[in-house]
Amino acid sequence: MGLGKKTVEELEVRGKKVLVRCDFNVPMKEGVITNDNRIVAALPTIKKLIENGGKVILCSHLGKPKNGPEEKFSLAAVAVRLSELLGQEVVFANDDEVVGENARAAVAAMKDGDVVLLQNTRFRKEETKNIDTFSKDLASLAECYVNDAFGSAHRAHCSTAGVTDYIKDTAVGYLMEKEIRYLGNAVNDPERPFTAILGGAKVADKLNVIDNLLEKVDTLIIGGGMAYTFLAAKGYGIGKSLCDETKLDYCKDMMKKAEEKGVKLLLPIDTVVAAGFPDPIDAPIDVKTVAADAIPADMEGMDIGEKTRKLFADAVMASKTVVWNGPMGVFENPTLAAGTLAVAKAMADSSATTVIGGGDSAAAVMQLGFGDKMTHISTGGGASLEYLEGKELPGIACIQNA
Fold this sequence. Notes:
- 33% of the residues lie in helices and 17% in strands.
- By secondary structure, the chain is an alpha/beta fold.
- The strands form four sheets. A six-stranded parallel beta sheet has the order 5-6-4-1-7-8, with helices on both faces.
- Strand 9 (194-198), helix 7 and strand 10 form a beta-alpha-beta unit.
- Helix 8 (227-233) crosses helix 9 (248-261) and helix 10 packs parallel to helix 11 (338-349).
- It starts with 16 loop residues before the first strand and ends in a 5-residue tail after the last helix.
């Protein structure tokens, strides 16, 4: 299945000014970047545009400035790190209004292959409301536009969508291309058998995902905190485990839907229980394993048990495509990480196309050391989920079709 969107490879940029929306929303502590993964991930697209002789104007948001410009949300440190990584100066255009005198002067002085970084796009109140005035300001700087910020693609903001009302020559960057290729195609055109694994705490977060995936998968595995609402819907006593009482009927409907569609729906058959949540989260904790229909009334399910780990791992090994979103238990605690570890290991050992759908599962896979064994780890949290829900993402929809 093709990508369907124009890519950075196909964009004619020599001598042209190119506005690139990146995801430089990096963790900072006292003005210092504590993890530069997102900056490193943006380099291939930036380097390609430099190499092809474009004048590269980068923009991104950082954090959630509430009342306009705030020093702690400045992208100044990102410009410094980018300069080091690219081995050339990245001019930081420090304007509170983002597109101000400094930005215009910096862009006017650009030669082919130069790089300018604009100030945090969220310093402008219009950004998150997608108000025309800011979209026009951004567009006035450039002749081409590239979106490489998948993590923000589910938001229709000025810098991710609105700007394309005024710049018509548009493309997706390499990161975005990879997300569409792996996450999109894994779900929409998978090699079968296709298994999806959903975990995490809340059923409510994954309602539409479950519904959409039941139309597409051969096997749906449900673990993590959300599994207990399904077990309760089956009539099991779940003790003090997480349960969303308002979603019991929904869970019953989904189990029925799976049956009607011939989808294998796998739920935990045993569970690791404890008297209460560990505090702090990584504190030593006493646990025992019980059958999924025999959780003591005063205990709480915290992870999938040994038999379930084998059941889920076997399903993964029998698949050709596996998409995973959400941990199997309280993986931040070493005693309660075994379920998440078992799924990660099965995916790492399998020859299937393996896609990790962002958020906590991405963190878990990296933390457990299996990052390089996966076909693709999505960089989006909310964006990955909406993609799995089958939604069209505004930041992708607005890009020129190939």
